[in-house]
Every structure is written in C-alpha cells, then in structure tokens.
Write a structure and sequence with these properties.
Blueprint: H1 6-18, E1 36-38, E2 46-55, E3 58-64, E4 70-76, E5 85-99, E6 104-118
Parallel strand pairs: 4-6
Antiparallel strand pairs: 1-5, 2-3, 2-5, 3-4, 5-6
C-alpha cells in the first residue's frame, strides 16, 4: 500500500506560511507596497483589554501592557471584554494598516495567530 503525505505536508506549509485560513470575502492583510510590514519587535505577549471590536473574522483589541503602554492586536474572533487579561502569539507587525471593514488606519498593529483570556 502506498501512502501519500503530500496533502498533509501542503496543508502544514500553507498554515505556517500564510497563518489562519481566511473565509472568502474576508478582510485580508494587504501585501502591496503602500503598507509596510516589519519584523516582529519586542511587543508584550499579553495585556489588559482596553477596547475590542469584532470585524469579519477578526477581533481587534486595544491592550495595555504591564509597562502601561497601549497597543493594538488583531487575531481570530475572540470573545473578550474590557478588563480581561489576554495572552497572544505574535505573527506579524504592520505599520499604517488600513482596515476597510472598520474604516480606520492603525499606526501600528500586531496580527496574532491566537489570543486567549488569562485567568
């Protein structure tokens, strides 16, 4: 019996190369030169939720780090409320990212692969 691992390998490659799968018509991070991508920087990996908005398949969260600085993350839809402590896995930082769904441009936003509430 011959077993092919190609479909599984392709799925893993896509998951690690492109992040979470996106629904058709869902908002995507831009890839054109008008938006700059930066290498991951020293962003805290957790923070307290200051505000949160669901849009398409993402939840945008304004967080406050332990140092008191505020920053934005966006990740898969996550049920959070103001005051929750959230831990996340950073994927990509973008400067001057415009969300067409929210009709808003973020000076800097961290796209995350996952976010969870810390008890």
């Amino acid at each position: 019996m011959r077993i092919s691992y190609l479909p599984a390998a392709a799925a893993l490659l896509m998951a690690f190369s492109f992040g979470p799968l996106q629904a058709i018509g869902a908002e995507k991070a831009p890839v054109d030169a008008a938006h700059s991508r930066t290498a991951p920087v020293a962003t805290p990996s957790e923070g307290k939720v200051i505000s949160a908005t669901d849009a398409s398949i993402y939840t945008y969260m304004e967080l406050e780090g332990a140092d008191g600085k505020r920053f934005w993350i966006a990740g898969p839809t996550t049920k959070v409320k103001v005051g929750d402590k959230v831990r996340f896995a950073e994927s990509m930082v973008m400067e001057k990212f415009t969300s067409k769904t929210l009709n808003r441009t973020f000076d800097r936003i961290v796209f995350v692969s996952s976010a969870s509430i810390v008890k």
